[in-house]
Amino acid sequence: MLFGFDLMAGLAESVRSIACQIDGFEEDFLPEPRPAEARFGDFQANGVLAHAKRHGRNPRELATLLAERLQENEELNEAVEIEVAGPGFLNFRFKPLFLQRYLALLSDIDKLREGARQGVNPLKVVVDFSSPNTAKQMHVGHIRSTIIGDVLARMLEFQGHKVTRDNHVGDWGTQFGILILAIQRSGTDLDSLGEAPLEALENLYREGNRLIQEDPDLRKIAQAELVKLQEGDPGNLEVWEKINKISLAAFEEVYELLGVRFDETLGESFYSDKVDKIYEELQQTGISEESDGAMVVFHEGHPRFAKQPFIVRKSDGASNYATTDLATLKHRVEVFQAKEVIYVTDGRQRDHFEQLFLTAEKWFAASQRPLPLLKHIWFGTILGEDGKAIKTRSGDPVKLLDLLKEAIRRARVIVSEKNPELPAEEADRIARVTGLASVRYADLSQNRTSDYLFEWDKLLALEGNTAPYLLYAVARIHGIFRKIGLAPGEGEESATPVETDYEKGLARRLLFFAPALSQTIRELKPHYLCSYLYDLAGDFASFYNQDKVAVEEPAIRSRRLILCARTLTVLETGLGLLGIKTLAKM
Ligand code: ARG
Q1: What is the pLDDT of residues 176-204, one digit of tens each?
Q2: Which of 349, 353, 354 most suits a substitution to test ligand 1, by most atoms within 8 Å of the C-beta?
Q3: Which CATH superfamily includes the segment(s) 7-94?
Q4: Share of residues in the chain with pLDDT > 70 (%)
């Protein structure tokens, strides 16, 4: 099909290649396309302005020249109307017959996937996400990494990349010395911790902390236990293993609820015997130096890291977060053959990753190896209704499992209110899907780099940019087909091209799916896809309120059925990419 799946990108490419053959356009011309306001057309290209300015030409003249040449191209002319506007913009509006043909590309999820893979060079990508520390329950702070990472992995896979989902759990930290101390002192049996073993471990950890604060001698003992563990003491290793097993089982419960899976769970401990090699390589390549007994890497010319080095080995000889991350990177390159590594964490780790990436650049350059593309995908904080980082009433972090259960509970109340006759089992199922979707969507629909306010009423509302609103749109379209007695995709034979304003508006919105998905993956920001789906559901609602689908006239009925079916496919595919299950009835 002319222009391919992503019409905006395909159109821009056509424009660029035709422009290149025109006197007055230089090699550096970029059309700079973007979706247009409806009254101007479907897409707009603004690039002539900057190009004319750079080369001292009159933009309006250049744009007119280009528009003429584009119109002379028969294929292009058949598909799209072209207009020069303002100081030198180009507006493009696709013709109804072309729209009609394009809609065939959206007929099912396989077609969408095929479209999304066009022109993509598939890479091996590691997505490092969730990555909680063991011996503690996951709290609300982990939800963003878990959900955003999961969604990025889903999208990259959809685009054809070979993704390894790696949960880089913190299972080798100082928490273990303190815990081992508390376990010894209390004579706890790790095999009988009761119903909620991870909570019991958290309590022990708290107790341990209290002990070492009161008694400096005990602090020394805790430190000694940690050293014993790290040196491979069998007794401590056994305790450590049990603690991790309990932790991972509890994490799994959260992942299960959220529908998140991993290919690897290689925690920090996995790299503990691989750090010596890192020290050696950094020393040999001359990248590191000694500073007050520690091994560090300075980054000259950097405003902060020229003076504030990346510490890769502490002065007491111990490895740290930095060393582990360097060893992890080496493993991902050598074993997973990663061409791209995406780290999804809180924005407070920006300095760490900046230093890690700078160090890795030097290290790989010095050993003449290609460095994969490294991306730190960071996010802001979830705020409670008081505008501060979300906490429980007692001031503790909100447990993630509790939050998810609360979402399901609240959704259940709403479902019963709206639809009291629903059998309990059905209501439970709807509440589970809606509650979990609401929490997910509330997170994903925000620009990830901003903080956002967590408000139950808003995220569960049936109106606005929320999961319930989108789930409802999906259920409504299923309902339309049920009522007519057809399956989506059936009854499309007699369709004529879109005609009414609402039909055109909806068809036009469907064109924007591919560019919205491309932008989302290019910037690794799920909120772009969310906004698109929200707009699509809105355009569908306007269309459906205005244009009756179940009409007698076969041509009209068929083309409206097509619009319903394509909207359904795009909504369901989009929500699926966001890790959201949909419902045929609500
Ligand atoms: N465990 C760390 C934390 O809870 C996150 C790890 C992120 N991944 C990494 N490779 N550093 O903050």
Answers
A1: 999 999 999 999 999 989 988 999 999 99
A2: 349
A3: Arginyl tRNA synthetase N-terminal domain (3.30.1360.70)
A4: 100
